[in-house]
Design brief:
single chain, 99 residues, alpha/beta, Rossmann fold, four-stranded parallel sheet, 36% helix, globular, DUF2325 domain-containing protein, UCP020408
Length: 99
C-alpha cells in the first residue's frame, strides 16, 4: 500500500508506524517549502491508497487546494489529523483499507 504525508518536518515516527501497518511506499512533502513539487503530488492523488494531512504543519492555501482536488477524486482516502501517531492510528482504523 502507499501513503502520502503532507505537512510536518519530523515524521519518522509516523513513517515507522505506517510501515508497521503494511504501507511500503511512503512519500512525504512538508507543504511549506516552495521548492517542493506540491502541484505534481496533488495531480497524482489517485496513486496513493491514503493521504495523511498533518493540519498543524501545513499552510492554508495547500489545504484548500487539496480539499478541492479530493472533492473531484472519488477514490481518495484523506485523513486530516494533528501530528500524533496515536490519533493517526485511531483514524486509520476507521477506513476500510486492509491495514
Amino acid at each position: 500500500m502507499s501513503a502520502l504525508i503532507i505537512g510536518g518536518d519530523k515524521v519518522q515516527t509516523i513513517i515507522k508506524g505506517l510501515r508497521n501497518k503494511g504501507f511500503n511506499e511512503i512519500k512525504h512533502i512538508s507543504g511549506r517549502k516552495p521548492c517542493e513539487k506540491v502541484i505534481t503530488s496533488l495531480l497524482k492523488l489517485d496513486k496513493y491508497d491514503i493521504i495523511l494531512v498533518l493540519t498543524d504543519y501545513v499552510n492554508h492555501c495547500l489545504c484548500t487546494n487539496l480539499k478541492n482536488k479530493t472533492c473531484k477524486c472519488k477514490n481518495c482516502n484523506v485523513i486530516y489529523c494533528k501530528r500524533s501517531w496515536p490519533l493517526i492510528e485511531e483514524k486509520l482504523t476507521s477506513f476500510s483499507l486492509e491495514v
